[in-house]
Amino acid sequence: MKLIIVSSLFCLLPQASTAFSPMQRTSVRSVLAMSQESLQEQESSMDSQKVMDDLPQMSTSMPFMARPAVLTGALPGDVGFDPLGFAKSEADLMNYREAEVKHARLAMLAAAGWPISELLDKKIASAIGLNPLLDAADRAPSLLNGGLGKVSPFYWIAVLGAAAAVDFYGISKSKSGDASYFPGNLGFDPLKVYPKDEEGKKWMQLAEIKNGRLAMIAIFGFAIQEFVSKQGVVDETPLFFFPLMETLKMYTNSGYIQ
Fold first, then answer.
1. What is the pLDDT of residues 32-88, one digit of tens each?
2. Which residues lie below 8 Å from residue 239, measured CB to CB, with a gap of 6+?
3. What does residue 77 show for φ and ψ, rounded to 5 degrees?
4. Which of 53, 146, 234, 236 is the most exposed place for a label (fewest CB within 10 A)?
5. How far apart are CA 22 and CA 20, in angstroms?
6. Backbone phi, then psi, for 104, in 5-degree steps?
7. Whole-angstrom Cα distance, residue 38 to residue 144?
8. Rounded distance between C-alpha atoms, residue 201 and residue 196, angstroms
9. Alpha helix (H) residue ranges in 129-197
10. Cβ pair 103, 212 in contact under 8 A
11. Which one has a higher pLDDT value, 160 or 32?
12. Is residue 2 scored above 60 in pLDDT?
């Protein structure tokens, strides 16, 4: 009988020793790691909830309306303006910001190019022996003013080709998975004016989007003003485009100053 009991104990010893085997210790480590990850996720969720709780309930730009949920102020120039509720998600917001930056940059180029064309078009055309594109009232060609048919088709092909190439590059860069990418970041900085510090970067991005929004309004104003007044913006507001004495002389000759 004693021999049977002793034999049974020896049989149980290997099974008891498996509790301290490397496999069991690995399982314990896995459980501990999973618990730690769960705690980190909970802390991150709590931090995110705290940030959301700290955000204003009302829109900064329109205090009488509730702030859209996705407009957290993280993007430069985000003041909670989305009265029609276009941005339903973070992905929507990024797509709209991409479109806004593209239109803003085009508008800034156009806001400079429109009056410059009215100032220099006839001089350049005369120098190289071409017909000017401005109409009889010195207005630049536009959808409302007309005159777009006078522009060479090769110009339109070149512009559309360049725009398509830039757009394709921007889309590929946005989908590259680069953590440093933000809407409009094409890496184009030939003069090295983009700041290195985070505060400077945010300031530059904010300045670009503000100037771009203003330029979009300006271009719309140029088109409507010339269509209604039938006069070029340069001729109608020479104070912004000519030296002061020349402007006063123009006003005197036109009867504004007696």
1. 555 566 555 555 544 444 445 577 888 888 888 888 888 888 899 998 898 888 889
2. 247
3. 85, 0
4. 53
5. 7
6. -65, -45
7. 61
8. 7
9. 153-174
10. yes
11. 160
12. no
Report the Cα–Cα distance between both ends of the chain, in Å, rounded.
134
Burial of 234 (0-12, 13-18, 19+ CB in 10 A): buried
218-64-52 Cα angle (round to 5): 100
Query: What's the rounded mean pLDDT across residues 93-115?
Result: 94
Tell me the C-alpha distance between 211 and 117, whole Å. 21
Stated as kind and residue range, the H or E segment containing 15 is: helix 2-17
Q: Are 71 and 87 in contact (CB under 8 A)?
A: yes
User: Residue written as tokens 């301290």?
Assistant: 20
Question: Do 82 and 71 touch, CB atoms closer than 8 A?
Answer: yes
Q: 182, 201 in Cβ contact below 8 A?
A: no
Residues contacting residue 62 through CB under 8 Å, at least 6 positions apart: 80, 81, 83
Whole-angstrom distance, CA of residue 4 vs CA of residue 238: 115
Q: What is the residue whose two structure tokens read 């006063």?
A: 248
pTM given for the model:
0.74
pLDDT of 21 > 90? The answer is: no
List the Cα angle 242/248/250 in 5-degree steps.
75
Compute the CA torsion angle 62, 68, 73, 77 (nearest 10 deg).
Answer: -50
